[in-house]
Amino acid sequence: MLSGDSADHESSVSAAVEDLTHSDGRRRKALLVLIACLGAGAAPHCLGPLRGLLPAIAAALLLGAYSISTLRSGRTPLSTEQDQGSESESLPAVDVLVAARDEEAVISRLVEAIARLDYPADRLSLWVMDDGSEDRTPQILEELSRQHRFLNVRRRQRNAGGGKSGALNALLPQLKGDWMLVLDADADLNPQLLQRIQFHLRSSAWGAVQLRKAVLQGDASWLTRSQALEMAFDAEMQIGRIAKGGIGELRGNGQLLRREVLLACGGFNEDTVTDDLDLSFRLLLGGHAVAVIWNPPVQEEPVTRWSALLRQRQRWAEGGLQRFLDYWPSLLSNRLSLRQQLDLLVFFLLQYALPIATVGDLIASLGFWQLPLLWPLSVSTLTLSAVGLRRAGLQSSEGPPLPAVTPLNVLVANTYLIHWFLVIPWVTARMALRPKRLVWAKTVHAGLTTSS
Q: Which of 36, 81, 254, 340 has its CA 20 to 30 A from that of 186?
């Protein structure tokens, strides 16, 4: 049963989210996106095999030029070495938040990582919400709480609802810190992290800060190498988008949120499958910028099985598209600058519209008995990703070493990225045709050895 303060908090969270979102009719909106993108991919075939290439060539030139310009803007990552703040009384208070469910393999390592942080004890707290764990996580946390005064453990029933967002929201009324550091249970951190990012935490320019995600044991297999390079590519591209006046996005693990900003945006949205992507848009629409930091990163485990990776990517794809469906009227309003709207349009076309349009192109190729016509745009997009993977892999990086940027590793990682051309159309069709039931689809963590 909720207390009065908790009930008031939950009401304010709901009101703030509903102020921006238009989450009704998601299936209908997804169906419209599916039909429009399939039609866009098929339509050029009506022009014939030669003139039908012109739209794809024009799109490849325009989108490719913008994307390459964005990637080049990210060549110099944001610095974290300015104003490290040696006076402890001036350091902002930080609450570390973790939603844990069945994390017996990694939860001890996480608590010890927080214990190693070089930060004043009176300015740092760890809050863990045990979200109905059915393994030894509760017993491990109870033992750890007796050893570490900074550790605060709360527990709720497994069917309490809201997934990870609900678990984190249940912690918010108890927090007093200036910033919240949201971590996954498998995270590991540089002990100097909070000292080194003081420039960003003290600046009023940032409502949130996202650390680059670095993959542990990235050289273990082709799948882990590809994920390590993919995460690096994503971080550098985001830094470039910010530098060009576009937007930065949260990635869940390793995100720092200014507490007053998060509360003003309505907390974590419990009506979404990806709280981080949803919050990115609400921060954007609220006028709160997101910074992305290259060094030091947050370390996390890779997904080691292809089946588990596809489940994870389906969730990411659904959450990513869902936020466009929910917030599109606000995204087209004067809440955003023209530069931000252009940035969103380009990356929506490349990340979501192109994979679906490619399916329409292939269907029309069979119907008209012609060769596919979108290949210039697909080729330019894959060329961009290959260049981005190589550039990101050559960056000076802390944490787990990035895989060697050999031609073979780049080729394999770039081929691996093609899975998005399968995942996006499948997820969009599923969203359009099937009712959604929100569940916590967590990634299983194995407790891999960290790197210094």
A: 81
Contact yes or no for 210/254 (Cβ under 8 A): yes
CB 314 within 8 A of CB 355: no
Q: How far, in Å, CA of 128 to CA of 240, rounded? A: 34
Based on the structure, what is the number of domains in the chain? Answer: 1
The H or E element containing residue 289 is strand 289-300
Report yes or no on 313 lying in a domain.
Answer: yes
Q: How far apart, in whole angstroms, are the C-alpha atoms of residue 247 and residue 298?
A: 21
* pLDDT at residue 3, rounded to an integer: 43
pLDDT digits (tens, 9 = 90+) for 214-269: 999 889 999 999 999 999 999 999 999 999 999 999 999 999 999 999 999 999 99
Q: Residue 247 is part of which domain span? A: 13-452
CB 298 within 8 Å of CB 113: no
Cα 157–Cα 160–Cα 161 angle in degrees, nearest 5: 150
**Is there a domain that residue 303 lies in?**
yes
Give the Cβ contact number of residue 165 at 10 Å. Answer: 25
- Say which residues have a Cβ less than 8 Å from residue 61's Cβ, sequence separation at least 6: 380
> How many other C-beta atoms lie within 10 A of the C-beta of residue 7?
12
- Token pair of 416, please? 């691996």
Question: What is the token pair recorded at 189?
Answer: 């951190």
pLDDT at 64 over 50: yes
3-state DSSP assignment of residue 231: helix
As given in the structure block, the two tokens for residue 87 are 């006076």
The reported pLDDT for the residue numbered 7 is: 47
Nearest Cα neighbor of 142 from 106, 108, 183, 118 is: 108
What does the CA dihedral 361, 363, 364, 365 come to, rounded to 10 degrees? 80
Does residue 1 form part of some domain?
A: no
Q: What is the pLDDT of residues 360-405, one digit of tens each?
A: 999 999 998 999 999 999 999 999 999 999 999 999 999 999 999 9
Domain membership flag for residue 2: no
How far apart CA 127 and CA 154 sit, in angstroms, is 8
Cα angle vertex 98, ends 96, 99, to 5°? 155
What is the domain-level CATH number for residue 35?
Answer: 3.90.550.10
Query: Are residues 130 and 153 in contact, defined by beta-carbon separation less than 8 angstroms?
Result: yes
